[in-house]
Amino acid sequence: MEAILRARLGPGACLKVAQLDAVRALQQGRDCLATLPTGFGKSMVYQLPAMWREEIDRPGVTVVVTPLLSLLRDQLRGCEDLDLNAAAWCGTADKRDTERIDRDLRLDADDGGPGIRLLYTTPESLGSNARLRDALRACARNGFLTSIAVDEAHCVASWGHDFRPAYLALKDFRDDVAGHGVPFQALTATATPRVKEQIVSALGLRDPALVATSLNRPNLRYEVIRRESVIGGGHSEVGTGVGTGVGTEDVALAHLAAMAKETKERWPGSAGIVYARTRAECERLAALLQDKHDVDCEVFHAGRTGEALARTQGNWAGGDLHCVVATVAFGMGVDKADVRFVSHWGPPTTLEGLYQESGRAGRDSKPARCVMYVGSNELDELRKVTGGGGEAYAAVEAYARGVARCRRIGLLEHFGERRAGGCGEGEERCDVCADPDAVRRAAAAADRISDGAAERRMEDARVAAEEDTRGGTAGGGDWKRRRVEIAVRARRVPLVPTQHRPPVPPGRPLGSRKFVPPMKGTKYRLKQ
User: Fold this and answer.
1) How many CB atoms lie within 10 A of CB 21?
2) Residue 514 gets which letter from DSSP?
3) Calpha distance 223→408 (Å, rounded)
4) Which of 3, 88, 224, 408 is least enclosed, having the fewest CB within 10 Å?
């Protein structure tokens, strides 16, 4: 197989050990769960067997389930570069293409079998498109459905950061359509031990081969910038919370802009990614970066037209922009090797999301930065969004506020990978390992400024309340005070319907009668 790989990718191409282990499991007809880091080459696990079948002219189809149409399209372009016969069946597919795929999948041995080697689809299409399922059922009956590859398999985890309910139906697809003899390949880069267990259970993997390698990305430098501690001046930098415009959003944006421009000067063809939580935040940040800081950037999120998204992705991939400002919709379809920085404007909801999104940097193995810009108020807001905290919030907060623990170690241990020390030899040193004293000073300054702002807000609220009580607000304090006093003294009386309400039998408490909803036109009165 390695000879085939070199023939299609070049003389220097070779398989990594984990890739080879996953391919061997497929050759043995075994289910497989492969946990491989972002940029490792997970797609080669199912593409190489397809190349081999094509090379020896043996018909066989692998169904590849992907969560995003953008990822599906990128994979198809990659197959074209490899001269590999692949097709896609999804909601946006042309009718003529689906008819052609349908006919091909139904070819039996007398007709030479299907010519398609890889069929890309989404879990929603696989679960709801009866015609696709019938065609694949015929393909399996003829003995030409060789395997099912489930990309981004962590989407099956109900507590995961990318949960997709349609993934839960994939087990039924194998039981009802493919047959038990068709092996599953579950592939992911962001699975904690708990998520791995649910992948095995939800997909019904039988005695799977567990293939894993270290999730460590040595060329990535992990940093956290506490926004309250960023100072202004000739150029923005992280300091001790003393300086012009300290802690303002504009100064933090200047810090981000400086990083984007410096990166572009050093690597002209490169580009960066800035992740924001919402579409509105993406639009706002991009406008500020463009207008105030002269950063050439564009917006990418699901609210924009397909034409606009394609244009933005093309400009970004071609290195014409400093960066793209995006939601996580700009995610699993990204395939650009020289992304030199990934920034999060605000904390992500999970460390899994942080690892996966940061992992889009430095796929060419050259140094890249992964920077989280975070304010204390955003951590408080995240606590509310996550329902008061929980394990996911606690992990993100510990990462963001940490001043003594290596960022790299914190991420790896979250995924069950244990090792001692901090960033080692040959690894880009995180901010904690590079200058722990500076990190502690910046965190102390950020906490001090944040606490002071919280105290000022409380004091302002107290003063406003006292002014209202004393009637201190111009022309309005007295009536506000009287209104509050009347509301406190007044007895609460419920509104009850004056008709269609059965009387209470003697000797029974008021709350014991069955409630009868009022009819249309019922009049209400105050209960005396």
Assistant:
1) 18
2) P
3) 10
4) 3
Residue numbers of the domain that contains 294: 220-434
Cα distances (angstroms) measured from residue 67 to each of 152, 192, 451 = 7, 19, 42
Q: Which of 397, 413, 401, 403 is nearest to 348 (CA)?
A: 397
pLDDT at 467 over 60: yes
Residue 59 is assigned to a structural domain of this protein: yes
Cα within 13 Å of Cα(3), Cβ side:
2
Closest CA to 496 of 465, 461, 522: 522
Domain final position from 177, 194, 212? 212
**How many structural domains does the chain have?**
3
The per-residue pLDDT for range 473-502, each reduced to its tens digit, is 455 555 455 544 444 444 444 444 444 444
pLDDT tens digit sequence for 101-144: 999 999 999 999 999 999 999 999 988 889 999 999 999 999 99
pLDDT at res. 290: 96
The model scores a pTM over 0.85: no
272 and 353 in a common domain: yes
In degrees to the nearest 10, what's the CA dihedral of 39, 361, 85, 57?
Answer: -20
Residues 201 and 231 both lie in one domain:
no
Model pLDDT, residue 247: 66
DSSP 3-state of 371: strand
